[in-house]
Amino acid sequence: MDTQFLYIHRIILVAVGLWPYHRTMLVHLQCSVFSITLISFIIFQLTTFLTTEWTVDFIVEILSISLFNVLCAILYNSFWINTHVVKRVLKNLQYICSDLKDENEIAILKRYGYIAKCITIGITLFAMCFFFIVTLLPILPRIFGIFFLVNESEPYRNIYIRTEYFVDEEKYFYFILLHLYAVQYIAGGTILATQTVMLGYFIHFCGLFNIASYRIEQAMRISDEVTNRMNTRQVDKKISHAVDIHRTTLKVIKFYLYNFEDTWFLLIVLVVICLSLHLFG
């Protein structure tokens, strides 16, 4: 496989503690802290129901965001629990790819690896820009107050997601803001890491299917020129290799989907609910 592709995804997975190799105590601590951070923020969102009058708009606002955070928490812990699946799929892909000898087949795989790398870089850059903008939102009023001399009596400390910490939010504003930033980066990093890795896997699966198609085409070309028993054996051998890589790739895909099917079903349900709430709100 393309080592640069692996390198990019390794950086993203290491950043959120989901790289399936080198599971040290520090990595376990990192994952525990990330999970607790996500869950605690969900709790502090839901506690607003205890202190605020319930209205339809209020319920939709809280649930639409809290369910999205629940989705991220489920996704994070699912990948944490199934790191052996991610590791095994990666090993199988590396084994299949290392077994390739034909230069044209290697070129096909490199082309798909390049596509995966470009898509990953593009998504990562977009996510970084998005995080930068979201990071500025809570402090924009203060920035405008400094440069445009806004009346100081007007509050500039504003957090755009409702939470209830049962403390003086003005006094502990920066601690609350730090918690919000941590949740945003963990949730965003989780989505970025898991989805780009999954996308990269399936792009490489497409490359392997393309290689199987290439082997069939080569076998058909030889069959058109069959003049002796040796050529017939070459055709049988190439078709056998094509079927073998196709069958092996399908096994890897089925293994991956089987271990994550419950998670994806739950995530799809949450995504539909979140989108419905956002549209309703």
Commentary on this structure:
It is a single chain. With 281 residues, this protein is mostly helical. It has one domain. It is 81% helix and 0% strand. It is built from nine helices and no strands. Helix 5 runs parallel beside helix 8. The longest helix has 52 residues.
**Low-confidence runs (pLDDT<50, min 5 residues)?**
none
Supply the number of helical segments.
9
The percent range for helix content is over 70%
Counting structural domains, the number is 1
- Tell how many strands the DSSP assignment holds: 0
Alpha-carbon Rg, integer: 25 Å
Query: DSSP strand (E) fraction?
Result: under 5%
Helix-strand layout with pairing:
Blueprint: H1 3-15, H2 25-46, H3 48-51, H4 56-81, H5 83-98, H6 103-136, H7 140-148, H8 173-223, H9 229-280
Helix pairs in contact: 1-6, 1-8, 2-4, 2-8, 4-8, 4-9, 5-8, 5-9, 6-8, 8-9
Organism: Ooceraea biroi (Clonal raider ant)
Protein name: Odorant receptor
Keywords: Membrane, Transmembrane, Transmembrane helix
